[in-house]
Structure formats: structure tokens, C-alpha cells
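note to self: dont lose this again. the chain is below, predicted strucutre after it. 330 aa total, dont forget to put it in the shared folder this time
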Amino acid sequence: MQNDNSKLMNEVSTVASILVKDVDETKLMLRLEEILSNYDIKRKTELELEEDLPEKVELFIDAKRLEGLSNLTLQGYWIELNMFHKFLRKATVQINTVDIRKYLSSNSEWSPGTIDKKLSVLKTFFGWLMNEEIILKNPASKVKSPKQPKRLPKGLGIEEMEILRESCVDNRERALIETLYATGCRLAELVNMKITDINFNENSAKIIGKGNKERVVYFTFKSMYHLKKYINERKGNSEYVFCSIRHPYNKVTGRSIERLINKISARTSIKKNIHPHIFRHTMATHMMENGAELADVQHILGHDNPSTTLVYSHVSEERKKQAHKRFLVS
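---
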């Protein structure tokens, strides 16, 4: 039975014979034996090989943290890669394109959007491993993204917005609805908004968005009116705009805001799925329908790529009809 040194020598010799033509295997084996006699080599067990992926994931997360990615993004990376590891249980260097395709097709309930998100994480992870020279090639690079159905973001109509407003039972709920709609903030951006970030004279606020980038968002007079009422009456001295209603009045979590919006929505007859992000869709859609320039909406939403904002560029049938009458010469 071969010891670990002999196994390593044979493996190195095989690789060398592939890379170098006319290699003298006898001399190579003798030289390797001479070198390896100075070392005590132990071959990793199958379990040790399988468990090396979490170690690589930790290195990846640490590197991305140094690049300034948000904790929310890092948590998303960790969750996705942990799911991949539980499915595969394979040494990182042995993972191939087939493995990734099997994983992405393993759950029939995953939508094309979910699969695309998972694939994006895997491409980023294995691309980083390749750049760090931990692996020789990215096994996810040849996997194509699934075709996405063309769906327009579902916002709320003006009447539906009024129904939600009228369904609020206190200033906290009303301020929340108005702030989400007026600023177009993402949920995490709203959660982390501090009172000191708000310029009450200019009806604006500085927020930190995706990629740790700062931008300015704006309030309407109506939203600022309700926000001031809420801030003036709330208890505690939290530095954050929206805090809990009980001592010690900590910053609200994203889940708390989701639950609160669900409560407001339950009081209405609106059939749509009401969630925090729908107000962002609604604000962008209403702005575009009222004639706002695409570039302006892009900067207000904090989109790096104009194509991301382009999904809001659809217009109502009535607006298209009026534009046709106005601009087409008979």
C-alpha cells in the first residue's frame, strides 16, 4: 500500500508529464523522493476536503467587508454560499460547472429571479477565488442566467395611496407611509436614517445607500408635516428617525416596519401585496408618468446603472395617446 508521500509523488509526476513534454519520469521521481524525505506529509481525509468551502467563504466575506460592502449584503452572501455548501459537500477545487447547474436546478420552486440571484453570488465568489489564485478557473462562468420574465414593477395608484393614508391610525404610521413614498428610500436606508441626517429647512435628508454611497433624498411638504408631528410626540431620545414605541425606544428593524405596513394594509380592501419597497416603485412610477426625466429619477433612487431605472419608463395608455396626438404630424 502506498504511503501519502508516494501518492503525492505519483500525482505530481502525472501533472508534470502533461505540462512538460519528454519529461524523464524516473529522474523526476527520484528528485521528488529526495525532496519529500525532508517532510512529513499527511493526506487530507474526504471529510476535511468537503469542509474546506466554509473556510474559503469566511475569507471571501472578510475581503468583501474590507471593500466596504454592507452587513446586509455580506449576510446575503453568507446565506447563499452556506446553502450551496450544504447541498454539495465537495472540495472547493473539485467543484465544476455541472455541480453548479445541478444545484441551481435542485429546487423546482425557485423562480428565475431567485436562480439568477444565486448564480450571481456564485460567480462573484468563484471569481474572487480565481483572482486570489486559490482556484485556476471559475466554474460558474459558463453557466448562463435564466431568462427573466418581463414584469413591470407594481406600484400603487393615486387612489390606493389615499386609501392607505386614510387607514393609518396614528402619526407614526402616517409618517412612515409618507416618508417611504416621498423619498423612495429602500427599507435599510429608512431604518438607518437619523434625525441629524434631515435638513428640515430644505425638506431633504442625507442617506447611505447601496455600496456605502451617500445621496440626498427629498420630502414633500405633506410628508415633512406628518414626520415632524411624529418626531415631536414620540417618546425616548433615539437618534434614529423611526424607533420602537416601548422602552428603551431602540431603532426599529426592517422586519418591524414590514409588520407595521402589513397591519395598515390589512385595514384596506387593496388586493395588492403591500410591502415597503412598493412605495419606492410607486414614487418612481408617478414621477415618470408626470414627466420627470429618467436621469433625475435615477439619481433620486440611487441607481448606478440607468437600465435599472428604465423599468419605470413605461407610461400610461392615456399619456401615450396624448403624446401621439401632440407630437405626430398628420
